[in-house]
């Protein structure tokens, strides 16, 4: 049993959902932080939707809970306060602008580096917010700051 009262299966990495707070509170603050199974996450409430992701930026560990939310190419992103990387709230993709060097008149286009920040699942039940950690088996860049020696919250087991 985890100290937060939830259970985790270490073999299959299937995580139980963990209650992180009240819906009425996050609707006021529009963001909150939590530790879920020893992993630090940030939960955003933006335009009626909830999004949870690893709290440390995939680039260099910046504190995403202190960033601003802005739209790029119609996609809401958290902008990391350290070096201004843009990460989509819905998918965790890193966005950047590129230009075709063979066409100097072309306008810069928004492009995706792919999924860089691990996204977790948020559910609401009876006014409570729950986060379920992603168990997607791919290696995500933000895992580096959420696990191992760079992890801020050390395992209690
Ligand atoms: Fe986030 Fe560099 S640490 S952009």
UniProtKB/TrEMBL annotation:
Its cofactor is [2Fe-2S] cluster. One of its GO terms (molecular function) is 2 iron, 2 sulfur cluster binding. Residues 17-131 form the Rieske domain. Signal peptide: none annotated. Keywords: 2Fe-2S, Acetylation, Iron, Iron-sulfur, Metal-binding, Phosphoprotein, Repeat. This is Rieske domain-containing protein. The gene is RFESD.
């Amino acid at each position: 049993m985890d100290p937060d009262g939830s259970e985790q299966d270490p073999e299959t990495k299937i995580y139980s959902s963990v209650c992180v707070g009240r819906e009425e509170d996050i609707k006021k603050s529009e963001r909150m932080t939590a530790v879920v199974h020893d992993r630090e996450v940030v939960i955003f409430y933006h335009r009626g939707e909830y999004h949870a992701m690893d709290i440390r930026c995939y680039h260099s560990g910046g504190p995403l809970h202190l960033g601003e939310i802005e739209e790029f190419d119609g996609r809401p992103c958290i902008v990391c306060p350290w070096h201004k990387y843009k990460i989509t709230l819905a998918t965790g993709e890193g966005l950047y602008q590129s230009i075709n060097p063979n066409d100097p008149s072309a306008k810069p286009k928004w492009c995706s580096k792919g999924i860089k920040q691990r996204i977790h699942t948020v559910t609401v039940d009876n006014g409570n917010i729950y986060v379920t950690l992603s168990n997607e088996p791919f290696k995500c860049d933000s895992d580096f700051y959420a696990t191992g020696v760079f992890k801020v919250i050390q395992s209690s087991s």
